[in-house]
Batch of 4 targets.
Target 1
Amino acid sequence: MSKKRANDKKIIKIFIALIIAFIATLQFIIQNVEDDNVKFVAEEDLKVYFIDVGQADSILVINKDQTMLIDAGGNENGKDVVKFIKSKGITKLNYLIGTHPHEDHIGGLDDVINNLDIENIFMPKIQTNTKTFEDVLDSIKNKNLKVTSPEKGTSFNIGDANCQIMLDPIIDENNLNLSSIVIRLEFGNKSFLFMGDAETKNENLINWKKVDVLKVAHHGSDTSTSKKFLNQIKPEIAIIMVGKDNIYKLPNSETIKRLNNVGTKIYRTDEDGTILIQTDGNSLDVLLQ
């Protein structure tokens, strides 16, 4: 073989290697591109995502072209929550709810506010002096947004789903859980109840209607989800948002027992990961992500 031919083969091999490397790099870029370019498809069914954010809460609700986010996890979860929302093609939230000013519920709100368009923000009329809370207020101020503190009976829609604020918050600086915004959502013949970290003291304020899906309050703590409350709502499905092997040893065994006693099917983010409940208004489908 001539020296020229050998050099030509060497050049061809180098050229092919460069093409392969270029294609691999291009695939990597495409796979890791920002989710901003994902198209948002309007959903006829109601979709409720209980996002696995460990020992924290974050719930995304979608119907038609309307969206709501209830809480955004802790400080370390904000970027992941934003990424999850954008992966659905969503760039705007019609309603952003910070149920109460504990870090495991509002810690990621500043990331959400900074990276998405927000139409309405609901938070209870109680403040703390934590850096987490101040970061959220700074993000709200920087985007010239305002906060509404909804009263009991306030009603609003997410597509064809009707949402209602069920309680006036109990303002107690020594127990922020009592200020939780509680939302009942109705879609066709199906209903959801999002309890934040509300406690038995909140539950005792009203008589409750039956509900199909319960977001269990306070990560399954025994301070919530009382026997009286469960006997009124008798949920078909309960979602417990809780971190794996958490130091609080939640959910509490007595809470689990009370749910089992009313025949409720329990799903947990520590065991099942992110949970999607989808409904056409007549039936419920539970999909583990």
Target 2
Amino acid sequence: MKRLRFICILLFLPVWVGTIFSQTPQAFCGEPMGNQKKPVGIDLSLWRKISTQPNDSIGSTCFNVGVFSTMNNLAGVGLNVLGSIVQHDVRGLQVAGFWNLTGQSMRGVQLAGITNVNGNDLAGVAVSGLVGINGNRTRGVQVSGLVNINGDDNDGLSIGGLMNLSGNQTRGVQFSGMSNITGLNFKGVSVSGLLNIAGGDATGVQVSGLSNITVGRMCGVQIAPANIAVRAKGVQIGLFNYYKERLDGIQLGLVNANPSTRVQLVLYGGNSTKLNVAARFKNRLFYTMLGTGMPYLKFSNKFSGSLFYRAGLEVPLYKRLYVSGDMGYQHIETFKNENMGYPARLYSLQGRINLEYRLTDRMGLFVTGGYGWDRYYSRSANYDKGVLVEGGIILFKY
């Protein structure tokens, strides 16, 4: 009989305690939040409608423990096995195994296994296994395994395993595995595995594995295989760099382009690789070239060829006569000639001086003199070296 009475007390203890705290809330919750005049104390909840706190309460909960809970306001600590829904504001700590939903603002720390959703602002730290969503602004730190989404601004540090998305501005530091997207302006450091996009201006550093795109003005440094900006002030470092209107700075890349860049076809022969074709990306003074040539060995040998890159500077001499100089790197493959005793592959470092005469606005002729060092990849030694003599034709608009 005593044992049965003890079991009954344990079963009804949570309800009894919750009722006491509901009747004497000021001693435990302190002052209510905002316009909420009646804090309700402690909520012990098994499910949304199975709890010590009425679902239609207009007060604030200072301590909540449950499986799945629904509250008006939370001013304190909420701990739930599955999830919790707070219809208005949270001030404190909100922890759930799967989800935390806050109708308005969150001030404090949110931890969830799957998702944290705030209808208005987040000022603090939110950590979720998959998705973090804020309807308005984030001022603190958001860490999600998949995606962070901010409907307006992001002022802090946002780390997403896949993507960070801000509808308006980003002022802090973002890291993501795939992309960082800012609807308007970005200020700070943005690092992603694939793509950084700023719909307005970008100030700071953008680093990505594929491309940095700034629709407005970029002030700072862009580092990626492809960098794109409307107006740029700073440095673009990549394989392909492009600005649409103006650049106050430098571009360091294999191909540097803008709307005035002319893409030309270069056909020439020489004593290194015998027949060559290249694309020349020519700006007002500077140019770069990407091309291929064949054969590297004699015509009587089996097939051999090369890929090359050159970058240089061109200045006018007299009317249609121009002089240019460039440095180049060439990768050489001998393919099946390796069986004949030739190295399987080589690389060549080359310097050239070119004299070019423009016959028309779409055609020119040139001759080249230079020097090259063909070297082994496997050891620090020259395979061959000597003078370069070349000549050819340039097509398309200057």
Target 3
Amino acid sequence: MKSRFVFFTAVFFGLYFDTLNIFKFCILSSILHEAGHVAAYIIILKQMPKIKITIFGFVMQYPRANSKNLWLVTLCGPLVNITACCISFLLLQSKFTLNLYVFMWVNAVIFAFNMLPVYYLDGGHILYDKFAWYQRYYRIISGMAMAVMAAAVMLVSSEKFSLRPVLATLLYFFINMSNDI
């Protein structure tokens, strides 16, 4: 019960203080991601999955050992995100809007993050279901992937190497570009 309270409190404050709609698009993209999993699960297994609310969001629980095609269920979540990203990109070619731009990048980031070879993410589950070598070494591979992610975050957030000026410049450029269209 405590984790649900924390989850919904975080969602409330995230939505309340979300001036650029980034948090709203994160929630929408996450719901689309999970809907992709659920739709594939219903199509493949012909039943409704159990969905659990945790502090990290919604988690679909299903027995991984019951079907050889569950890697398809796992793949459908990221496929929904990359599809939404591509559609947003195509729509941006005709008219730029900041909301569509943010929606595109949120979906791209959710896709890329979920396809990392960390066992608890979709990419790790797909590798685990399809390849015996990953089953033997998934703890080592997941640990190395998390170490690389941590190093990348520290590098990007360090004072010596900061993407903030680059991102601010790009944002300013795209906002001004949208005024010209």
Target 4
Amino acid sequence: MNVIFKTKRNQISFLSMLIFTLFLATSCKNTAEEKPSNTSKQPNVIVILIDDAGYADFGFMGCKDLETPNIDKLAQSGVVLTDAHVSATVCAPSRAGLITGKYQQRFGFEANGTGYGNSGDIGLSDDVVTMADVFKANGYKTMALGKWHLGADKTDHPNQRGFDEFYGFETGSRSYFSLKNPSKYTMLQHNGERVKFTGYMTDVLGDQSVKYIEENKDQPFFMYLAYNAVHTPMHAKKEHLEKYKNHPRQKLAAMTWSLDENVGKLQQKLKDLGLAENTLIYFLSDNGGAANNSSSGGPLKGWKGNKFEGGHRVPFVVSWPKAIKGGQTFEGLSSSLDIFTTSLAAANITKADDLVLDGANLLPYLKGEKTGNPHNKLFWRKLEEAGARIGNYKMVRLQDYGATLYNLKEDLGETTNLETTHSKEFQQLQGELRNWESQMMDPLWVEERSWMDVTHHIHKRLMQNKEVLYSDPGKMKEVLSNKK
């Protein structure tokens, strides 16, 4: 794979920026001059994106030891999608895919982080359109809360990517408690200005989400609520640690309880204001559970960072009481890429012909108007590892090693390699993956070689159905030293 390094200044020309500006002005049916009135029937749209949560770590997904009553209530009010996936198995590229509605490889955002080495900080391409761009152009108030992790360049700031309000932090991870001297990227901020806070970050974000709903109750709004829970560091409130003092997953249980409390605050505020029925809410994790936060993928193999189901199949809820019957389960193949397309359909916003979206409109499926799968194919790639899904068949490919094939309907745990016994399906998946890759860009940056080596080791051992010996560079160094 040829890796291309580009600086932000070289990504676009003045002409392309001018074209992009004109595009925003004409991209949608409802223009800024045709803003809906306060009595609009358009739904509010809320994306609740959590961080590094395990597939099986919620009551609505069958979890018995973590308490999530409010999140379970949200799931009961809508549809639980059991075969739902994100477009990447790590934080930053997954968020890039969700917020743009397209495979992030289309604009080179493939590796984690937002740049590495001599690439500089690149982040989101300046000419890529976000959900917030489109909703703002169509009269919605737009707000982003919590973790951003999509670029530290000035042009990548949420306020420059369609969000009227940003109340959060730019980095991918930080303490849940206040920092004495935070950097520009780790500080909690409101539209670029530092916010000094006391208390616990999950509560702070939850309180702000309620405040924003109260302030914007009379107009349609789009809220991107990106909690950093339950990502490391494993920080929890003292009273919650005490509550779960005898729990085998004490810190995760405490952090999850706080997350659930704050999702409950949001639900209650919507109900109190009479907005609950006509608010479209998505709830999902940015990738699978991490190896270092005690999360559980249940029957799934793998975890965050690898192309087995535990890395990209996520808990996913869609709730819109006004339009979608609650208490349902949907088994069709779906993706976080669908959020953009589905939201446009719900808001009756016409997509511009030149706006490329890879997602499907889920509404006909969730309303029972269509059956089957919103997607026939899905693809994943991060540098040396890739995956492809067609129907029930899934392939995992590792550079300089080979590929494995699984039938997920019969083998959800991906233990039986069908490469030799199902050569027709294997060749089809290989061909489809290569065809998809031909339409994508090479990555604009890579990752630290030590982490790439760790990831390679994990994939190889999982493909061999062997125990993984290390999952971070420190442990790798220790294991390899002992072998000498």
